[in-house]
Amino acid sequence: MQPDQQPPCPHEENACDHKHDDRRTFLKKSSFLAAVALTPAPLIKAAEKKADEKIAAYFETVPVNLEINGKQHSLKVEPRTTLLDLLREQLDLTGTKKGCDWGQCGACTVHVNGKRVLSCLSLAVMQDGKKITTIEGLASGEQLHPMQEAFIKYDGFQCGYCTPGQIMSAVACVREGHAHSEDQIREYMSGNICRCGAYRNIVDAISEVNKGGQNI
Ligand code: FES
Ligand code: FES
């Protein structure tokens, strides 16, 4: 007999199929048992809890270091996470508002390295190593920022939803030197929409802070 020739099967036809089925079943079972035996227990538990998405998210996150309102944060974020979602969802800094989530309303304005930025249009991973200031970081302890005080003094808000973004933009507007006239303020604040129409009072508040000449 040639080495590659198999000996004829000694069983009757039906019995033979039965035996071959048994062998296949045995091999399947033993492979399955081996796979289970070799799988780490935490992974089995994770699979039981249908945590595959969580596992995928774990391996797909990117380390990011940020200074937010003077405090260092070492975080892991998904590459698609916006700065706005990181602040609100991961860090509970909900003072920064989500209005349109599309770069159209200014409600999400924060400062990145001192410049105003729409956090809904900015990926968190792009801010690695940068300094972020949100509305929560503007005051000094109990002492409100001069722009916050001016907004209160001039009733620069009604519902208040746009107000954190307005104030962050207003501070930047003064720092940029774009608050020397009402027209200039209106132009450089035009990216911040107020559905309550508090514009007149917002302009007055910004004007006063600018005229005060304080180092803000
Ligand atoms: S929420 Fe970012 S611009 Fe509207
Ligand atoms: S105060 Fe209500 S949207 Fe501006």
Report on the structure:
With 216 residues, this protein is α+β, with helices and mostly antiparallel strands. It has helices at 13-38, 41-48, 52-60, 83-90, 146-153, 163-175, 182-188, 199-212; strands spanning 62-68, 71-77, 109-112, 115-118, 131-133. Among the domains are: 13-56; 138-216, DNA polymerase, domain 1, CATH 1.10.150.120. It has 8 helices and 5 strands; from the N terminus they run αααββαβββαααα. It has a 5-stranded mixed β-sheet with strand order 2-1-5-3-4, with helices on one face. Strand 3 (109-112) and strand 4 (115-118) form a beta hairpin. Helix 5 (146-153) packs across helix 8 (199-212) and helix 6 packs parallel to helix 8. The radius of gyration is 31 Å and the shape is elongated. 29% of the residues are buried. The structure holds FE2/S2 (inorganic) cluster (2 copies). Residues 98-101, 103-108, 118, 120 line the site of one FE2/S2 (inorganic) cluster (FES).
